[in-house]
Amino acid sequence: MEVKCDAPIKKPNSLLGIRHLQALMLFLALLLAFAMRVNISMAIVAMTDKETENAFDWSIQTQSVILSSFFWGYIVLQVPGGEMAARFGGMILITLCVGINSAVSLILPIGAYYGGWQLVCACRVVQGLSQGFIFPSIHHLIGKWVPLEEKSRLGTIIYAGAQLGTAIQLMISGFLADYWGWPSIFYTNGVVGVIWTVAYIFLGAATPSTSKMISPQERMYIESSLGHIGGANKKLSTPWKAIFTSLSFISLIIAHCGQNWGFWTLMTEIPSYMKQVLGVDIKANGVMSALPYLAMYLLSFPLGFLSDYILKKKWLSVTASRKLSNSLGHYGPAVALIGLSYVPAGNVVVAVAVLTAVVGLNAGHYTGYLLVHIDMAPNFAGTMMGITNAIANVISIIAPLVAGVLLNDETDAQEWRKVFYLSSAIYIVCNTFFVIFGSSKRQKWNEVEESKDDERNKN
């Protein structure tokens, strides 16, 4: 059983501790994972540029298949990833995730030359498969390492790594492709990823109790805050039926699907839109494509602070606060996308400004539906995240393919209008469902009886 300590939890005197080192490593893991996830969006522009030597003659439909192939593997291990993180610990899985992605990045250029688009797709599937561990593992490690009093701050820092990784990758890819050729995009990712993997093997730890670097005082602070003293190994049976029959949980799936449709349509198609409609060259393309995600990264911090402040002042309930944040993150981009549809072709400044607003406002989802998993059932937040992420990432496969079908002529601004209108409609419909049926109320099934094996061991 868990030990409850009536004495106040004493925070370590040092400003920075091993928990902050773990948070930094997880931040970098997400940064690298998302950099390797999105690098193909910029690379494919250079790979198919007919003005360069040895360009690949891939149609827009073939490119859409390549852009979606990452998610074919990504959806497979979402739910198992949550269960495996609980069983084996998040450290092993996240090390495998970044290590495998790095290795594949190093061999992908050779695969493209000798195996064509089919082998590129195979490499992306393998990367997606291993990244299926990333969110369940990080969710699990945050639950083990981050004290309740610091969860909002450190959690925001860690998860914001995804957007910073996206922004950095888009910014540097154009310059790498221009000066050293598109293969350098993948080689750079691979080398940096290998360095992180080696560093994490020595610096990382699955829990405070297994860390050889942490002080006893800091370990006690973390474990006391999380209630893990004497109860860290408690196993709970996952209430599958209760989870899948909860309307509140179903609304999380819908919200997550809406998020992924809008986000990944823009992520995979913005570089092509920049080049084909706005006529932006590869170096400027990368910088301009990165601006929206840099805005999203920067906006995540004030939005996170504002959400915590609203709850601290009790101006809104937790449920209302989450819905307000998510509405900003989904309705805001929906309106901005409609505006983007009417930006005149070739008007780069206005188009980039609107795109920045579209993606920047989407930061609201960090303090929206994304936290409701933990609000509803903290004991099963990792598994729930795995479920919603698996289903929502089916959408990540479909969205680029639909864009490819809608874009008969990718140089025609009218064709792009159909893509933006569809994403706007999906944002509105999915968030409305979440606003009506979503809830942050702690679910009864969060507290379930221990598994029969545990009961047998006690007797």
Lay out the secondary structure.
Layout: H1 18-47, H2 60-74, H3 78-88, H4 90-131, H5 134-145, H6 151-180, H7 183-203, H8 216-226, H9 240-244, H10 247-276, H11 282-312, H12 318-341, H13 348-361, H14 369-376, H15 381-406, H16 413-437, H17 452-458
Separation of the first and last Cα atoms: 14 Å
Largest sheet: none
**In percent terms, what proportion of residues is strand?**
under 5%
Mass-distribution shape: globular
Uncertain regions spanning at least 5 consecutive residues = 1-8, 450-459
Radius of gyration: 22 Å
Percent in helix: over 70%
* N-to-C order of helices and strands: HHHHHHHHHHHHHHHHH
Structural class by sheet pairing and helices: mainly alpha
Number of strands: 0
Number of helices: 17
Mean pLDDT value: 83
Question: Could you walk me through the main structural features you see in this protein, from its secondary elements to its overall organization?
Answer:
By secondary structure, the chain is mainly α. Helix content is 75%, strand content 0%. It has 17 helices and no strands. It has helices at residues 18-47, 60-74, 78-88, 90-131, 134-145, 151-180, 183-203, 216-226, 240-244, 247-276, 282-312, 318-341, 348-361, 369-376, 381-406, 413-437, 452-458.
Characteristics:
459 residues; mainly alpha; disordered N terminus; disordered C terminus
In a few lines, what is going on in this structure?
The protein is mainly α. It has 17 helices and no strands. The radius of gyration is 22 Å and the shape is globular.
